[in-house]
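[step 3/7] inverse_fold.run input=structure_tokens len=368
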């Protein structure tokens, strides 16, 4: 197989994969994160436009100038759709406002440059670099927003592994690095030597595209479907992000009683064994609302919800690891018995609280 045919094969996988994956995400067979997935599917479709002209070329098709102009223009919209998909993953109740129109400034500038690029090499090069650099601020903001979200989500969920959007944070880093490489490549093409070999870049994008698809199709619903619960949990997150001064949500006369009630409930009913336990569920068991429970945890225990619940899970896991009747149970089995949903989360949290992995803890107990 010739080098040229390999490049065509990679292009087919890349373009075809993006089209197919955008279709699947837009259909959203699991019916989860619907607004976010609609925008993310649109992002994947727009992203495919970066390779459609190459695909048409090796298919022997020559698109007219208007079609080429249209493709160049929609490429500039790609990071905007990615950005707003992340916005809706983080806050499914987000509402567009006038301030969001700031996102249209660069596309308008780019459109003006495109309209004046014909016969003007300098304007054409400027338009190319605007299209490339336009991606960087969006990717940086996406990464920062996800990292903030990952901290906030611990206020409402005891198991964040499947909802922390870590795959999106990694995607943003990969895209950032890839764009920097692309800039260097384009600068080399413009000022040093014109290269026609894009295989290495296409292979890198191929890896990113299929890795992204794997994660987006496995992404669970982040917030409860119940609108009342969703609004309550989102409002708690927002309060934490804004770091607004919290009002006294529980009277002093009731505070210690509720604190003891919570401790007793955790010991007797063991709600932490539910791997899907969230702030809303636990508050219902105690007979207070989610805002009050969050206030109680922050002010009565100095912990967020994630820390509070997983402290009990780790303690339960330690008991099981020391129990001879559970000696034959694997580490994964211990994790599930203690309320964790995965071995990775179990190992990470256990080591953070005990400075040992579960395996090390079990071994040390056996050696005693």
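[step 3/7] decode complete -> sequence:
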């Amino acid at each position: 197989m010739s080098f040229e045919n390999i490049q065509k094969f990679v292009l087919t996988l890349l373009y075809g994969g993006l089209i197919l994956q955008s279709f699947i995400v837009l259909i959203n067979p699991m019916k989860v994160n619907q607004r976010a997935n609609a925008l993310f599917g649109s992002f994947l479709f727009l992203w495919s436009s970066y390779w459609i002209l190459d695909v048409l070329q090796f298919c022997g098709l020559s698109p007219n100038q208007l079609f080429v102009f249209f493709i160049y223009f929609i490429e500039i919209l790609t990071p905007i759709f990615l950005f707003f998909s992340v916005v809706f993953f983080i806050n499914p109740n987000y509402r567009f406002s006038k301030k969001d129109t700031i996102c249209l400034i660069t596309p308008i500038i780019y459109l003006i440059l495109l309209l004046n690029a014909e016969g003007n090499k300098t304007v054409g090069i400027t338009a190319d670099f605007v299209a490339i650099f336009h991606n960087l601020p969006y990717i940086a903001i996406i990464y920062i927003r996800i990292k903030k979200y990952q901290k906030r989500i611990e206020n409402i969920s005891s198991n964040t592994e499947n909802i922390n959007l870590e795959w999106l944070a990694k995607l943003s880093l990969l895209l950032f690095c890839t764009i920097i490489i692309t800039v260097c490549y384009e600068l080399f093409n413009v000022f040093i030597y014109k290269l026609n070999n894009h295989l290495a870049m296409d292979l890198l994008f191929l890896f990113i595209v299929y890795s992204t698809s794997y994660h987006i199709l496995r992404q669970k619903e982040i917030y409860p479907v119940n609108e009342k619960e969703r609004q309550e949990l989102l409002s708690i997150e927002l309060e934490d992000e804004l770091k607004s001064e919290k009002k006294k949500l529980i009277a002093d006369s009731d505070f210690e009683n509720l604190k003891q009630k919570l401790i007793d409930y955790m010991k007797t009913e063991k709600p932490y064994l539910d791997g899907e336990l969230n702030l809303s569920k636990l508050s219902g068991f105690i007979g207070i609302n989610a805002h009050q429970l969050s206030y109680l945890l922050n002010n009565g225990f100095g912990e967020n919800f994630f820390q509070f619940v997983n402290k009990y899970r780790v303690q339960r896991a330690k008991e099981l690891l020391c129990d001879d009747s559970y000696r034959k149970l694997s580490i994964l089995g211990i994790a599930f018995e203690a309320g964790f949903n995965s071995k990775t989360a179990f190992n990470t949290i256990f080591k953070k609280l005990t400075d040992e992995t579960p395996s090390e803890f079990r071994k040390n107990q056996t050696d005693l």
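[step 4/7] annotate
The chain has 17 helices and no strands.
Residues 166-191 form the longest helix (26 residues).
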